[in-house]
Amino acid sequence: MPSAFGWGFSRALGHYTAALGPPLLPSLPELVDRVNASSVLELGCGEAIALQEATALLERRQELRGVPKASVCAAGVNSLEHALKYAYSNDPAAMARARREGSVMAGNTTRVALEMAARRRHMSFQPSTTPQIVHADFRRAWPFAPGSFDLLLSQSALGKLKYPDRELPLVLDEALRVLRTGGVAYLEVINAAGPSVQWRATGLPGHETDTGVAVSTPDGWNRQPEYERLVAWLAAHAFPCGHSDRCTPVEIAIGQVANPHVSSDSAAPSARLPCGPDSPASRGARLGAQARRCALSFYYGSHRSSYVLLHTYLPAFATVGARACETAAFASPVIGPTLRLLNGSFGIDRDRNDLMRLLKQRAAVLHEARAQGDKRPDDAFEMPGMLSDRRMWAEAFVTALRQWVRGSTPAWSDVRVFHHRFHVRPRQAG
């Protein structure tokens, strides 16, 4: 049974980091260098293929900086409940057999199992560091201490959320909590198989309330004038990502976030392992005791997928405020080069209360549509990625993220949103 070893649930790192790269975003190795990363967490790591690749990347970067490999710390989160349901068809015997045969996804997280997974995927390397795999439900509090990781990665995991309006904000809050100050989370939000999701030509909606996505479907949307305008707009303004895709920003927000609190699971042994403040890889001083930090959320997508890049940082001066966070973002080695390539400005949303009311209404409609789908007798709505109405599914994530940065949880305050229409400045020669 190929799925017993996670073939459908584990992708190589390059399958999703291809959307990182010039001209607008740094490549993953560049991002690791800019963050000076020594610790990594993968959410929904499957057989830990991408996690092992990322761990090896951190080790190589550490060697180039003259830092011992032992300083690298790596962890992954899996759900045995999800594996049993989707990879093993709710068959405990099949899962137990896969575990004995070395399936990481089935719960065998030994060094031997990780090496077997690497061989099955014909990986030519094996990191010296053995990642720790924790089995937990990532929709709830994560069993890691605050400020444990420099780098957080996730591919496909968030797309399994059934109710983005309720689940996505909690996941993103936890991402901010476990990130060290100066760290980056790079999360694939939607992985839509096939050329289905298209972004409307509003690009960077800012204070607008337009829906963010549309879908090329057999009903003829791709023959409508709006489609032709979108194609032309993407050709003029979107940036290359992946092999043949073009990506467009959906929304960029800058604000303050509360200093991470200790989660309800922080007393668990895994909360102190493997990358907490007492670990060899720790640089706890980077988290500091500041009451608030600056954060940036950059949400963008192609017709196949969408991604959010989260970055936490501190301004050069002691004051943490909206203007200070904006100024520091442009000076940040992580995201500053990207922002300097954009034409536009950050500003406070007009009529924020009205905007939140409309976003909440939209989220309620999408939530109810999903709930009605769950009442179907078959399994059609069990995996969100299989929804026939992918526009609705994608819009649910866009709406949830826009609500999140505007205060659907206590995490964010003093949010400023990029308002002008997106346009990339030409790079200067030399």
Task: Please tell me about this protein's structure.
The protein is α/β, with parallel strands linked by helices. The chain has one domain (2-418). Helix content is 33%, strand content 20%. It has twelve helices and 13 strands. Strand 10 and strand 11 (305-313) form a beta hairpin. Helix 7 (164-178) crosses helix 12 (390-408) and helix 11 (352-374) crosses helix 12 (390-408). It is globular, with a radius of gyration of 21 Å. The termini are far apart. 48% of the residues are buried.
Quick structural summary:
With 430 residues, the chain is of the alpha/beta class.
Q: Tell me how many strands there are.
A: 13
Most strands sheet: 11 strands, mixed
Q: What class would the helix/strand composition place it in?
A: alpha/beta
- Give the overall shape: globular
The average pLDDT value, as a whole number, equals 78
- Which stretches are low in confidence, meaning pLDDT under 50 for 5 or more residues running? 215-223, 262-271, 280-289, 377-388
| Beta strand % | 15-25%
H/E topology pattern: HHEHEHHHEEHEEEHEEEEHHEHHE
Helical amount: 25-40%
Total helical elements: 12
Radius of gyration: 21 Å
Distance N to C terminus: 53 Å
Number of domains: 1
Search tags:
single chain, 430 residues, alpha/beta, eleven-stranded mixed sheet, two-stranded antiparallel sheet, 12 helices, 13 strands, 20% strand, globular
List the helices and strands and how they pair.
Blueprint: H1 14-17, H2 28-35, E1 39-43, H3 49-64, E2 73-78, H4 80-87, H5 92-100, H6 111-120, E3 132-135, E4 149-154, H7 164-178, E5 179-191, E6 197-199, E7 213-215, H8 225-237, E8 239-241, E9 245-258, E10 292-301, E11 305-313, H9 322-331, H10 336-340, E12 346-347, H11 352-374, H12 390-408, E13 412-418
Helix pairs in contact: 7-12, 11-12
